[in-house]
């Protein structure tokens, strides 16, 4: 009996042991199973940093991720093939949050259960009281790049409205086809199809109104600059304000009438303007402080408070307008030898550092040889008038590049005979068709062109030999990897149509990719017209001229982003694009 009991006890112990083993196995299996589930969830199911929107189910919040171009600090509206570098996330209320406009250094405008602005520097979002159901939005800034308002267009409407952020007020609703900020928080520029305006940004008041009456006029426009605690107003003539006509003081009194030149400088607390061979200095009122007679001199430019000119002894010279005893004769002037480049400018130490220029702070003056090169292979001379009042001389060793492949498209509203001339035909080198005093073509609304012998052209082509250096104080840093997205985005903002943009990209993309790293600046209509004005008859209702300036660099450079205006096609439209290489 004792043996049977012992056997039973052993059996019971065996059963208990088996149960324990089974329990341990089940627990181990469950642990492994749960670890596997967690791994799969983390690895494959949970959204990762860099996805467009991250869904946090626990607190019902989401994230809108902002991307930037590879090796660049330039943000983009949405993730793309080359714009795929994660920058940061903005916490949002909805899954379908969407970026609407970006200012790379300061603000991001986005849609998220309403309209919101994200302050990049302070990392804070603010919900605006403006609705988020409009068709297009853009941000408006003051002279310190502070956000002051939103410009928007209603769906299927060509008219803009301005929303003043500080006053929470809609202004100038559906009155103007174009509204833009100026370099101050107090004024806006605007236009209709036949007039231009300077608007008060704080109360609905037209400060200046042009007398133009022709539809789609390319006539008068207005601009404003801050002068100490006052304003100076400029009434300009030509597309985008090419020539200053009248200048008004803070109290709207005429300071100078019928200026008809662009020899004007606003520097520190004073205004300098050439008026009938006299450079006059004003303090922002109509009161003249001092003047310098230039009757026997050839004026080339005013930079800050310095006059650049050819003096009565025929010397290329510089003079301090505040102290006429401070002047220097730089080099004997030869009209047949030199071309003065009015992209001459002042460079501070910081600007020189950004441009990798190992030279002194001062005013840099560019003279190019008309015949191309000198005996040493240099293309010109860059003179620097330093802050120590010395003249430094730097040879221009590399060809700055003429304007590469400018092409001109013409789109009349009906089949039209068009004549095209250049203000400076002597700058032209290669032309197709051959340019002899003028081009005469028949243009059709789809852009097709036919010469007098009925030969077809899709555009008019030329090269220019004249050189112009831009200082790249503003522009964009572009790398090989983001070149496609960059060109597509900026050309769309500027206003090229798909065909024009496609041809432009095919020409300049290889250059940007070969450079690896580049600085880019877009010279638009007003600057372009100053260098070699296009004279088109009949006159286009709207015209876009655009030159891309490309400078190869060997490292990433921080550059102030250029603000680009969008071109509006109305009526008979002319479009030109080209480029310049450095």
Structural account:
Residues 48-58 have low confidence and may be disordered. Among the domains are: 1-46; 53-127, no CATH class; 296-399, no CATH class; 405-581, no CATH class. 15% of the residues lie in helices and 45% in strands. Helix 3 (483-494) packs antiparallel against helix 4. It is globular and about 120 Å long. With 582 residues, it is mainly beta. The longest helix has 44 residues, at 2-45.
Roughly what fraction of the amino acids lie in strands?
over 45%
Which descriptor suits the 3D outline?
Answer: globular
Strand neighbour order, sheet with most strands? 35-39-33-45-43-41-40-44
User: Taking Cα atoms only, what radius of gyration do you get, to the nearest Å?
Assistant: 32 Å
In quaternary terms, these chains amount to single chain
Extended strand count: 45
State the secondary-structure class.
Answer: mainly beta
Fraction in helix? 10-25%
Nearest-integer average pLDDT: 83
In the predicted model, the low-confidence regions spanning at least 5 consecutive residues are 48-58
Q: Give the termini distance in whole angstroms.
A: 109 Å
List the total number of helices: 5
Major beta sheet, specifics?
Answer: 8 strands, mixed
């Amino acid at each position: 009996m004792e043996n049977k009991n012992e056997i039973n006890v052993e059996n019971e112990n065996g059963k208990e042991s088996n149960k324990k083993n089974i329990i341990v196995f089940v627990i181990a299996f469950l642990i492994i199973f749960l670890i596997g589930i967690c791994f799969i969830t983390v690895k494959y199911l949970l959204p990762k940093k860099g996805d467009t929107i991250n869904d946090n189910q626990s607190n019902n919040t989401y994230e809108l991720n902002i991307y930037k171009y590879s090796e660049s600090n330039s943000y983009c509206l949405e993730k793309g093939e080359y714009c795929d570098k994660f920058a940061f996330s903005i916490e949002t209320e909805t899954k379908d949050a969407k970026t609407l406009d970006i200012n790379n250094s300061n603000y991001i405008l986005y849609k998220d259960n309403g309209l919101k602005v994200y302050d990049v520097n302070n990392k804070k979002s603010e919900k605006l009281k403006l609705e988020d159901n409009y068709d297009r939005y853009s941000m408006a800034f003051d002279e310190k790049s502070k956000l002051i308002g939103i410009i928007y267009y209603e769906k299927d409407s060509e008219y803009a409205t301005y929303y003043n952020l500080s006053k929470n007020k809609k202004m100038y609703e559906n009155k103007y086809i174009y509204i833009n900020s100026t370099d101050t928080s107090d004024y806006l520029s605007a236009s209709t199809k036949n007039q231009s305006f300077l608007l008060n940004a704080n109360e609905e008041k037209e400060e200046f109104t042009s007398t133009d009456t022709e539809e789609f006029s390319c006539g008068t426009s207005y601009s404003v600059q801050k002068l100490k605690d006052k304003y100076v107003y400029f009434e300009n003539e030509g597309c985008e304000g090419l020539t200053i006509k009248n200048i008004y003081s803070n109290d709207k009194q005429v300071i100078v009438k019928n200026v008809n030149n662009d020899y004007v400088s606003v520097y520190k607390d004073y205004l300098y303007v050439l008026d009938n061979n006299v450079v006059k200095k004003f303090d922002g009122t109509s009161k003249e402080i001092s003047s310098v007679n230039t009757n026997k001199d050839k004026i080339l430019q005013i930079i800050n408070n310095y006059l650049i000119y050819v003096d009565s002894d025929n010397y290329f010279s510089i003079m301090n307008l505040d102290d006429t005893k401070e002047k220097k004769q730089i080099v004997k002037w030869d009209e047949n030898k030199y071309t003065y480049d009015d992209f001459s400018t002042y460079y501070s130490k910081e600007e020189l550092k950004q441009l990798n220029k190992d030279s002194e702070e001062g005013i840099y003056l560019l003279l190019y040889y008309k015949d191309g090169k000198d005996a040493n292979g240099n293309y010109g001379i860059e003179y620097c008038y330093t802050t120590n009042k010395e003249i430094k001389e730097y040879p221009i060793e590399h060809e700055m590049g003429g304007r590469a492949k400018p092409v001109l498209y013409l789109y009349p509203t009906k089949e039209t005979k068009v004549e095209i001339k250049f203000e400076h035909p002597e700058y032209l080198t290669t032309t197709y068709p051959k340019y002899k005093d003028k081009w005469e073509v028949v243009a059709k609304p789809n852009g097709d062109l036919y010469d007098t012998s009925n030969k077809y052209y899709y555009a008019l082509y030329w090269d220019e030999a004249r050189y112009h250096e831009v200082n790249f104080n503003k522009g964009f840093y572009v790398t090989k990897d983001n070149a496609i997205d960059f060109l597509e985005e900026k050309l769309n903002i500027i206003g090229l149509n798909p065909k024009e943009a496609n041809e432009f990209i095919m020409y300049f993309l290889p250059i940007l990719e070969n450079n690896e790293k580049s600085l880019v600046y877009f010279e638009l209509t007003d600057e372009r017209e100053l260098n070699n004005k296009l004279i088109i008859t009949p006159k286009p209702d709207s015209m876009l001229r655009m030159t891309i300036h490309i400078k190869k660099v060997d490292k990433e450079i921080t550059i102030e982003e250029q603000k680009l205006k969008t071109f509006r096609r109305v009526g008979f439209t002319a479009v030109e694009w080209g480029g310049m290489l450095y």
